[in-house]
Automatic annotation (TrEMBL):
This is Purine nucleoside phosphorylase. The keyword Hydrolase applies. It catalyses: adenosine + phosphate = alpha-D-ribose 1-phosphate + adenine; adenosine + H2O + H(+) = inosine + NH4(+); S-methyl-5'-thioadenosine + phosphate = 5-(methylsulfanyl)-alpha-D-ribose 1-phosphate + adenine; inosine + phosphate = alpha-D-ribose 1-phosphate + hypoxanthine. Belongs to the purine nucleoside phosphorylase YfiH/LACC1 family. It comes from the Bacteria. InterPro entries: Cu_polyphenol_OxRdtase, Cu_polyphenol_OxRdtase_sf, Cytotoxic_necrot_fac-like_cat. NCBIfam families: peptidoglycan editing factor PgeF. Keywords: Copper, Hydrolase, Metal-binding, Transferase, Zinc. Purine nucleoside enzyme that catalyzes the phosphorolysis of adenosine and inosine nucleosides, yielding D-ribose 1-phosphate and the respective free bases, adenine and hypoxanthine. Also catalyzes the phosphorolysis of S-methyl-5'-thioadenosine into adenine and S-methyl-5-thio-alpha-D-ribose 1-phosphate. Also has adenosine deaminase activity. PANTHER family: PURINE NUCLEOSIDE PHOSPHORYLASE LACC1, UNCHARACTERIZED PROTEIN YFIH.
Length: 256
C-alpha cells in the first residue's frame, strides 16, 4: 500500500505529522487500474475506488469522510479546508477545484493524486498547518507550490518543511525544445535531457528550486514513476490509476 511512509510524533509544543505516498499494491481495482487506484476521474469502477479509499483512511486511523481530495485542474489556485478558518461548512464535502490544499486541523488528511506529476507535502509543526500540492509541468510553471507556501504563511506559518514525492524523472520526460525553455525560464533547474539526449523537463527539480528560493527545507524522495512498475505512470501506460501523497497534522501534546 505504501511506497514511503513516516510518522513524526508530537513533542512538547510541536505538532506531529504523518505523511506518506501510496503505491499500486493492495487494492481492489482491476486492470488497467490495478490495484490501489485512488482516483475517480480515470474511468475505474466507483465501488473499487471507494473500497481503496476506505483502506487508505483505515490505515491512517481515519474515516473515509476525513480524507480531503482536490478536483485537480493543473492551475495555481489554493484552498483552505473548512474549519481551518471561518469557512462555510456547507462546502465541507465538495472537492475544491484547486491544486493546493491547506489545513490546520488534526482530524483530517489532505490527499494529492498523481501519475507522473509531482506530489508535494508541506508541514509547519510549530504553528500547526499542513498542505498537499499537485505540481505538474503547468503547475510548476504557474507557481502552485510558491502559492501554497504563501497561503500557509498568510495563515501564520513560519516554519515550513517540504517533502517531494516520486514523479516522472527528467530522462523519461521528453518535450519539445520550446516547452523546455519555457519551464527553464521559470526555474533553470528544470532544463534537462532525456536518456537519448533530446530536450526534457525535470519538473521535480524545478519545484525543489522554487521551494529552496522560498527558504523552505526540502526532502526529495528518489523514484521515477515511469520506471517503477509499482507506481502509476500516465506517460508509460496512458489510461491508468493514480497513487497519492497524503499528509495529516498530529495534535501537539498538552503542555502543562
Ligand atoms: Zn525515469
Amino acid at each position: 500500500m505504501f511506497f514511503w511512509r513516516e510518522r513524526i510524533e508530537p513533542s512538547g509544543a510541536r505538532y506531529g505529522v504523518e505523511w506518506a505516498f501510496t503505491d499500486r499494491r493492495g487494492g481492489s481495482s482491476q486492470a488497467p487500474f490495478d490495484q490501489l487506484n485512488l482516483a475517480r476521474h480515470v474511468g475505474d469502477l466507483d465501488e473499487a475506488v471507494t473500497t481503496n479509499r476506505h483502506r487508505l483512511a483505515h490505515e491512517l486511523g481515519l474515516r473515509l469522510a476525513d480524507l480531503r481530495f482536490m478536483d485537480q485542474v493543473h492551475g495555481c489556485d489554493v484552498a483552505v479546508t473548512p474549519g481551518t478558518q471561518d469557512h462555510d461548512q456547507e462546502q465541507a464535502d465538495a472537492a475544491p477545484s484547486v491544486d493546493g490544499l491547506i489545513s490546520g486541523r488534526t482530524d483530517e488528511a489532505l490527499v494529492v493524486m498523481v501519475a507522473d506529476c509531482v506530489p508535494v507535502l508541506l508541514v509547519d509543526r510549530t504553528e500547526g498547518f499542513v498542505a498537499a500540492v499537485h505540481a505538474g509541468r503547468l503547475g510548476m510553471v504557474t507557481g502552485v507550490v510558491p502559492a501554497t507556501v504563501a497561503g500557509m504563511r498568510e495563515l501564520g506559518a513560519e516554519d515550513i518543511e517540504a517533502l517531494v514525492g516520486p514523479s516522472v524523472c527528467a530522462r523519461c520526460y521528453e518535450v519539445p525544445a520550446e516547452m523546455r525553455d519555457a519551464a527553464a525560464a521559470v526555474a533553470p533547474s528544470a532544463a534537462a535531457v532525456t536518456w537519448t539526449g533530446t530536450p526534457a523537463i525535470d519538473v521535480a527539480a524545478g519545484v525543489v528550486e522554487q521551494l529552496v528560493r522560498e527558504g523552505v527545507p526540502v526532502r526529495w524522495l528518489p523514484g521515477c514513476t515511469r520506471e517503477n512498475p509499482d507506481l502509476y505512470s500516465h506517460r508509460r501506460d496512458g489510461q491508468t490509476g493514480r497513487f497519492v501523497g497524503v499528509v495529516r497534522l498530529l495534535e501537539r501534546e498538552q503542555v502543562a
